[in-house]
Design a protein that fits this description.
Elements: H1 8-20, H2 25-41, E1 59-60, E2 66-67, H3 69-73, E3 78-82, H4 89-109, E4 112-117, H5 121-130, E5 136-139, H6 144-149, E6 152-153, H7 157-165, H8 170-173, E7 181-182, E8 185-189, E9 195-200, H9 210-216
Parallel strand pairs: 3-4, 4-5
Antiparallel strand pairs: 1-2, 3-8, 6-7, 8-9
Helix pairs in contact: 1-4, 2-7
Length: about 220
C-alpha cells in the first residue's frame, strides 16, 4: 500500500507487484519486450529544448469544448504533462501523485498544471473523475503537441496485441483513431509561453518525480 508521500517509482513498484500475478505470461512478456526496446532506443532526436516556444494546437477540454494550451494557462506559467490515456495504469499513478503532492506547491506560486493526452474528451473526463483531479485535463486530437515536442511514439505490434487481449483498442480510445501516444513528458512553460525545462521518459513505466519538478520551478 502506498502513502501520500511516496514517490511515483515506489507507487509503480507496488502496482507492478499487484498486477504481476493477474496478467497472462505472454502479455507480461509483450509489455516487457516493448519496455526493453524503449530503453534501448532512448531519447528520440529532435526533442524541443529549453528556450523553444511551447507548441500549441486545437485542443478539447474534458467536456468536448474547444481549448488551447494558451487559454488554459490564463497568462500564467504552467507545468504541462503529456500522458498516454486513462487506460494507462502508470499514467493514473503519476497524475494522482501530482494531484496530491504537486498541486499544492504550484498553487502557492500561481502556476497552472495541465495534463494532455490524445484520448477522446470522455477519456479525459474519466481520468479527472477517477483520480479526483482539480487541474486542467485536455484532449489533443492527432497528438499535435506531442508531435511538435518530438515525443510522439506508438506501441509495438506485440504490445498492441497484448493490449487487445486486455480489451484495449487505442484506435477507439484516441480522438483521431490512431495508435499514437506521447512519451510521458513534463514541460515547464513560463508566462510568455517559452519552454524553461523539459523531461522526457521514453519508457512509460517511469515518470518525472514531484521533487524534480519542484526543483525545476526555480528556473522561473
Amino acid at each position: 500500500m502506498t502513502t501520500i508521500n511516496s514517490t511515483i517509482a515506489e507507487r509503480v513498484s507496488a502496482m507492478q507487484q499487484g498486477i504481476a500475478g493477474r496478467l497472462p505470461a505472454e502479455v507480461l512478456a509483450a509489455f516487457g519486450g516493448e519496455q526493453a526496446e524503449l530503453d534501448a532506443a532512448g531519447l528520440p532526436e529532435g526533442v524541443l529544448a529549453a528556450g523553444a516556444a511551447m507548441p500549441d494546437g486545437e485542443l478539447l477540454d474534458a467536456h468536448g469544448d474547444p481549448a488551447t494550451l494558451e487559454s488554459a494557462r490564463h497568462g500564467r506559467p504552467a507545468v504541462v504533462v503529456t500522458y498516454r490515456g486513462a487506460w494507462c495504469p502508470y499514467c493514473n499513478v503519476a497524475l494522482r501523485a501530482y494531484q496530491e503532492q504537486l498541486v499544492p506547491v504550484l498553487a502557492e506560486r500561481g502556476i497552472e498544471l495541465i495534463a494532455i493526452s490524445p484520448q477522446k474528451p470522455d477519456g479525459s473526463l474519466s481520468m479527472a473523475e477517477k483520480n479526483e483531479l482539480t487541474f486542467t485535463v485536455l484532449s489533443d486530437p492527432g497528438n499535435q503537441i506531442a508531435a511538435a515536442l518530438g515525443v510522439l511514439t506508438a506501441p509495438t505490434e506485440s504490445a498492441r496485441a497484448a493490449q487487445a487481449t486486455l480489451g484495449l483498442d487505442l484506435t477507439a480510445a484516441n480522438a483521431d483513431g490512431s495508435h499514437g501516444v506521447p512519451m510521458p513528458t513534463v514541460v515547464l512553460v513560463d508566462a510568455e509561453g517559452t519552454i524553461r525545462w523539459i523531461d522526457v521518459h521514453p519508457n512509460y513505466t517511469t515518470r518525472t518525480e514531484v521533487e524534480e519538478i519542484a526543483t525545476a520551478l526555480d528556473l522561473l
